[in-house]
Amino acid sequence: RPLKTDRDYQKCIGQKVEVKLFAPIKGKKFFELVLKGHDETCVYLDDNGEELKLEKAKIAKICRAIDFEGLL
Q1: 42 vs 58, 59, 69, CA distance in Å?
Q2: What are the pLDDT digits (tens) for 20-48?
Q3: Taking Cα atoms as reference points, which of 37, 40, 33 lies closest to residue 17?
Q4: pLDDT reported for residue 22
Q5: Would the pLDDT of 71 be above 70?
Q6: What is the rounded distance in angstroms from the CA atom of residue 3 to the CA atom of residue 18?
Q7: Contact predicate 50/67, CB 8 Å
Q8: Pairing of the two strands 28-38 and 42-47
């Protein structure tokens, strides 16, 4: 289920999320990173110790990542 409300984002802080973009950034349109926080216009992600700031308007879809390895 995509993250849409402030409550959705708050519940996922500190967890891995899947982010799909309308246009590529750093040559990629898909990221699987840890959600650090958000505000009205931006989402903040942890990219191996570096903070990645994405505008919500550039995000096609963002949802909680599912860890299939942990299910086996």
Answers
A1: 9, 10, 30
A2: 999 999 899 999 999 999 999 999 999 88
A3: 33
A4: 97
A5: no
A6: 10
A7: no
A8: antiparallel
3-state secondary structure of 67: coil
CA distance 33 to 65: 9
The string of DSSP letters for 3-59 reads: --SHHHHHHHTTSEEEEEEEEEETTEEEEEEEEEEE-SSEEEEEETTEEEEEEGGGE
- Distance separating alpha carbons of residues 36 and 53, to the nearest angstrom: 10
Residue 68: is its pLDDT beyond 80?
no
Is the overall model pTM greater than 0.90, yes or no? no
- At residue 69, the pLDDT reads 74
